[in-house]
């Protein structure tokens, strides 16, 4: 059932990134979205459709104080990651995904800073050998990239593979972001 139209289901803010700006959104349960390349109207519209309700900027007076605090902490931690001073995140995440995606994303979340795994390797780690392509699909649907480090999942031959990160950036822009995120962690791939 949709939320009442006068109360937000989520709030968002912008966060500086090495390639421009990213968007971070939270609900009362935690961070529900990180988008690496959308324009604000596209991001808000897509999130409102996904969550079936009103999405407001963090500055709006209708946004609860604790939501603003969650967004502030998440953007602080993401900024520290970009600066090379943070290796993991400890903000609550509101992960609204299928059971399969949850399993795959939990596997990706166990990858440590600077560690990579191939899609097939991750499939094996989660007990689903042979499901490399399905793992790639789940990585592309990750609603909270960076926080759940899907950028650490690469091709078996150490190529980038693919990268979701945003529904609004082209493939080359997305791969450039993935390459940059890996470089922050001191990891290189073959092009």
Please, could you describe this protein's structure?
Strand 2 (20-27) and strand 3 form a beta hairpin. The chain has 6 helices and 6 strands; from the N terminus they run E-E-E-H-E-H-H-E-H-H-E-H. The protein has helices at residues 40-51, 65-82, 99-109, 119-125, 132-140, 171-184, and strands at 8-17, 20-27, 30-35, 54-57, 117-118, 153-154. It has 2 domains: 8-82, Double Stranded RNA Binding Domain (2-Layer Sandwich); 99-184, Arc Repressor Mutant, subunit A (Orthogonal Bundle), CATH 1.10.10.10. It is 37% helix and 17% strand. It is of the alpha/beta class.
Summarize the structure.
The protein has 191 residues and is α/β, with parallel strands linked by helices. 37% of the residues lie in helices and 17% in strands.
Write the layout of secondary structure elements.
Elements: E1 8-17, E2 20-27, E3 30-35, H1 40-51, E4 54-57, H2 65-82, H3 99-109, E5 117-118, H4 119-125, H5 132-140, E6 153-154, H6 171-184
Parallel strand pairs: 1-4, 5-6
Antiparallel strand pairs: 1-2, 2-3
- Counting DSSP H or I runs of 4 or more residues, the number of helices is 6
Q: What is the N-to-C order of secondary-structure elements (H for helix, E for strand)?
A: EEEHEHHEHHEH
Report the structural category.
alpha/beta
Q: Largest beta sheet, briefly?
A: 4 strands, mixed
CATH superfamily of the largest domain: Winged helix-like DNA-binding domain superfamily/Winged helix DNA-binding domain
Radius of gyration: 16 Å
The CATH class name of the largest domain reads Mainly Alpha
CATH topology of the largest domain: Arc Repressor Mutant, subunit A
* Whole-number count of domains: 2
Instruction: Tally the beta strands.
Output: 6
Helix content: 25-40%
Q: Uncertain runs with pLDDT below 50, 5 residues or more?
A: none
Overall geometric form: globular
Major beta sheet, strand line-up: 3-2-1-4
First-last Cα distance: 46 Å
């Amino acid at each position: 059932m949709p939320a009442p139209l006068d109360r937000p289901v989520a709030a968002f803010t912008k966060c500086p990134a090495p390639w421009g700006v990213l968007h971070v959104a939270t609900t009362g349960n935690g961070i529900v979205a990180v988008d690496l390349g959308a324009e604000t109207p596209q991001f808000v519209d897509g999130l409102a459709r996904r969550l079936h309700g009103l999405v407001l900027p963090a500055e709006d007076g209708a946004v609860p104080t604790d939501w603003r605090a969650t967004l502030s902490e998440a953007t602080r931690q993401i900024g520290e990651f970009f600066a090379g001073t943070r290796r993991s995140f400890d903000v609550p995440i509101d992960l609204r995904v299928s059971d399969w995606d949850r399993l795959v994303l939990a596997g990706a979340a166990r990858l440590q800073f600077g560690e990579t795994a191939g899609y097939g390797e991750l499939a094996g780690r989660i007990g689903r050998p042979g499901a490399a392509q399905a793992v790639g699909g789940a990585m592309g649907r990750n609603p909270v990239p960076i926080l759940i480090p899907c950028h650490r999942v690469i091709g078996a031959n150490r190529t980038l593979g693919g990268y979701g990160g945003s529904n609004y950036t082209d493939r080359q822009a997305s791969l450039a972001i993935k390459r940059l995120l890996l470089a922050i962690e001191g990891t290189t791939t073959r092009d």
